[in-house]
Amino acid sequence: MSDDSRRTIPGLAPRKVSPKTMIARNRPAPPIGAAPAEGIEGAPTASERPTVAPEAPRRATAPRKPATALKSEQGRVNTYIDADTRSRVVATYKATAHLEGDESFSAFVETALLNETIRREQLHNDGEPFAASGKLQRGRPMRG
Fold first, then answer.
1. How many CB atoms lie within 10 A of CB 108?
2. Which one of 101, 121, 128, 142 has the fewest beta carbons within 10 angstroms of its own beta carbon?
């Protein structure tokens, strides 16, 4: 009743890359200053490598990652954003969470909010936190 033969999909080519090296954290780090290796199985050739423009210099900011608060110390924030923006944010989180060390989508959003807060404090308040002034206004602002 049991079939011990190896199950395969006909017409499927064998893997060129070991599945273990498909995850970035499992790949060995190249030596610093070394050119990418040519001829390694699964490594892109010079013609396949994307050309990357040099990065613009980044300005110094305060530490990126906020300290993780206890669940009882956390507050909930509800916002409404455009569906396209939300899709873009979620896609970015999913693609980079493992690279940036985000613990959750909430941590990603908290980091983004904190970075924008720091930017505005530096721009408008000499880098000092603004004084708290009560709760947020509910609903849409009155336009006249």
1. 19
2. 142
State the amino acid at position 79 in one-letter form.
T
Query: pLDDT grade, residue 44 (50/70/90)?
Result: low
Q: Is-contact 102 110, C-beta < 8 A?
A: no
Helix axes 83-100, 105-124, angle to 10 degrees: 100
Q: What is the pLDDT of residue 49?
A: 54
What is the pLDDT averaged over residues 94-99?
94
Write the DSSP symbol of residue 137. P
Contact 110, 65 (CB under 8 A): no
CA 61 to chain CA centroid, nearest Å: 18
Amino acid sitting at position 3: D
pTM for the predicted model, two decimal places = 0.49
CB 38 within 8 A of CB 45: yes
Phi and psi dihedrals of 94, rounded to 5?
Answer: -65, -35
Nearest CA among 90, 120, 83, 115 for reference residue 104 = 90
